[in-house]
TrEMBL record:
Signal peptide: 1-19
Pfam families: Asp (PF00026)
A Gene Ontology molecular function term of the record: aspartic-type endopeptidase activity
Name of this chain's protein: Acid protease
Amino acid sequence: MRAAVFFFLLTSAISLVGANFILPLTSKIPRRLSKTLAHPKFRNPQSVVHLDGASFDSEYLINVTVGGQLFQVILDTGSSDLWVTNSNFSCVDANHTIVPPETCQFGPAKFNSSASTTFEPASPNVTFFVQYGSGEFLRGPVGFDTLEVAGISVTGQKFGIPNLNHFLGDNVSEGVFGLAYPGLTSVYNVAENGSLTQSPYTPFFFNAVEQNKLTEPSFSISLDRASLEQEENDPFDPKLGFFAFGTSVPVPVLNASITVPIQGYGDGFIPSDASDAQFFWYTIDIDSYIFPGSENLLTKSNNTILDTGAPMNKVPSRVAAAFNALFIPPATLNENSRYVVECNATAPTFAVVVEGEEFTIDPRDQIISGKDADGNKVCYSGTQDGGPDVPGNHFILGDVFLHNVVTTFNPIDRTMTLTQRAPY
């Protein structure tokens, strides 16, 4: 899920199906040996594409063509919509007062519906609306057009074109490409009194399956880490990972691999394995976290989302506290209850156990460079406090974890495969 802003101070959120409210999840930082190689088995060689890094490599960007117009958008497995910036947008402040458009800091491309020969507007009685925990929001019309991602083209795809935006971007990205389930989509029916009722629709991946565009109904992702120097000196970092439809990505991997079920939900968003369970995020159960001294803790956690739109991990409070005390020198909590570390600190070892398989995280991923609200350099722990392990709370394995694995998502079979990457 896309960070609401590119400072660590603010919170992100998830829209819930059938609900007119936002569930705040986590705060995010600025946006950010036996080897085997994948054997391609896809129909279209363009189904494997590079990802680019942006916003201190807290975001991973993918090219999307909408009605013949090219955009760089954030790849996000924690949300479901595709939205791109409207050519006729207004930028507003928190009080809904119009401010200069550059205040929103969108990238240069904007969608112009009149320049597309395949665009069809949706009913004026529906709207696209997403709000983040920081108070940022985007709202505007909905349309249908031909979308192309990684060589896969889908016709008649519904997407958002927000034209009223209270937003702080990165001057690079021009939207978000969500890959989660339809229940998280952000299109709403608008009643006469202005109230909104969610109207779930079929996102791009699921449309590609329905239109028989994929030989295998899956997608795979590998996210590369950048150096601290690169993160500090350039907001854009090309070729920082791979995305593939219907095949794995071409990076060296090890033998450690496991396929796990995606967690469904029943009433009240309680995890459920029932046949009528609903699916929203790519959520799995964690057996345990392993780090020095962890054998003395209960570290199992449920409801853990694999999220390319989240730069860091969010784990149960007791795990975060014990782990962050092991940095040399130890991490400290800042005024916003975030773990801050020295940029030259030594990070402890850390591994995630899923169905008995251990996946290690390179210590280099546990120190994340960023800036505070005043623009000063600061480094954060890559593993932060996600709150208590209680029903209804969700945890996150973000880019810090995903730098170290190849993840293959099969939303139709409701499984995910994690494979440990070779050291790089």
